Amino acid sequence: MKINSTVFPLLAISALMLVGCGGNSNTARKGSSPTTGWAYNDPKMGGFEVKDAQEQDLGPNLVFVEGGTFTMGQTQQDIFYDWNNVPRRVTVDNFYMDETEVTNVDYREYLFWLRKAYPNFIQVYRKALPDTNVWRRELAFNDPLMKNYLRLPQFNDYPVVGVSWRQANDYCTWRTDRVNELRLIEYGVLDYDPASQFNTDAYLAGQYEGKVKKNLPSLSNSKDGKNGTRRVTLEDGIILPQYRLPTEAEWEYAALALIGNTYDERVVERKAYPWNGHSLRNSDPKDRGIFAANMRRGSGDYKGTAGSANDGFSKPAPVRSFWPNDFGLYDMAGNVNEWVLDVYRPLTFEDVEDFRPFRGNVFTEYRKKEDGSVMVDSLKHLVIDTVKSVKRYNYRKGDNRNIKDGDLGTILGYSMENSSDSLSTTHKMYYQGNNKATTRPNDGMASLVSDKSRVYKGGSWRDRAYWLVPGTRRFLDENEARDDIGFRCAMESLGDRIPANTKKKKK
User: Fold this and answer.
1) What is the pLDDT of residues 188-220, one digit of tens each?
2) Which structural domain, as residue segments, surrounds residue 235?
3) pLDDT-derived band of residue 407, with 50, 70 and 90 as boundaries?
4) Beta carbons within 8 Å of 472's beta carbon, 6+ residues apart
5) Start and end of every Sulfatase-modifying factor enzyme-like domain (predicted)?
6) Residue 224 falls within a domain, yes or no?
């Protein structure tokens, strides 16, 4: 039979298309590479290990916050005429956030572990101690609070205060390490070590041994026909992302919790405060008229009159004393102000990106030895350096805290970086080098706004209602502390799916 010359090429092309699309190839098999056809997790086919996508485990005390777009900034009257948070439309990604502020008992646990892990480095413990002197006032009798507030069990569930921004960051690093160490113990990889100096980054870099109970089997590292073993890696899905302070955008978005005020992607009512409505009092019929946050109502009025107190607390209140917002987060207004990750600039809203906006990036890299291995410090943490000047389209230097801020030093090309500093992960996570932005190079004029200025939000027991509005913002030096500033932690959400294991919205 004679084959039509015009039909044969079409048949050949169709056959090639079927093969190329995986019609009869290994790419159609489950558990195989769609690009090469080699099987995953098979020691006879290379041993490339691929874990099924898992739902992210929920870290202790965390609440899922579904991201989205919102109008960030102050939409109420700017009575101080700061003009430092003009409204702007931005998008926040999914993330997790602490249900409550970090409490005294939480922080004392941190101090306990530091003393236990570093008995020969007492300065590590002392550096982490809150400044209890923040309670003192020249014309007030607050010395009892200075002695009792942090330590006594009656104050266990009260938010910790007297913690600087840098101390809060160190706490986040420690918490990451303790949570991940426990996960490795629960997975049977490590044994409990009472003198543990476990650090997540050091472990992942192969610089921590500890009491290894049983490493994971390695499909690619076989000896004499038997599989070898290996450490846990990020690809195994066991290690959780680091705890950290929330960015200002994340904090403000979480505080507003507009999920209770939207219909078909439209915000039907802009909230003035984290709870519904524009009133400082609860609108629910069973609790009508009760103050919704711990605040200072007026001059000399911190709790109201005995027998009919308004919020009932004359100083910080135990966490969960008031109602949560629609995300299930407590005390996002009042009680204590909260540190966020950002460096303060009055015109941040003009400069930051509209997706995951943030000012304060200091890009870092691990310091390495001549053989290419990473270096560790005396605390067994990785040593990090600020990335030096680079020529990339997306960034040109490591320290970007003062990028585009328009100050005289930036205009004249003065560098604000100190590239000689080496840093440990624990004590200098984001701040690199000695700040030199407070003095301008020509006129010697000083400013309170510098690369050490960090934003805090939320209002406190000492503040009036204006500062309880999520859009308001203030700043303080990252090394200073006060009796009305605390913090809570956040964590990345991996992927865009809404996890099923998150806590339900509370009424």
Assistant:
1) 999 998 888 899 999 999 888 778 888 888 887
2) 54-357+455-496
3) low
4) 74, 85, 457, 459, 466
5) 60-353
6) yes
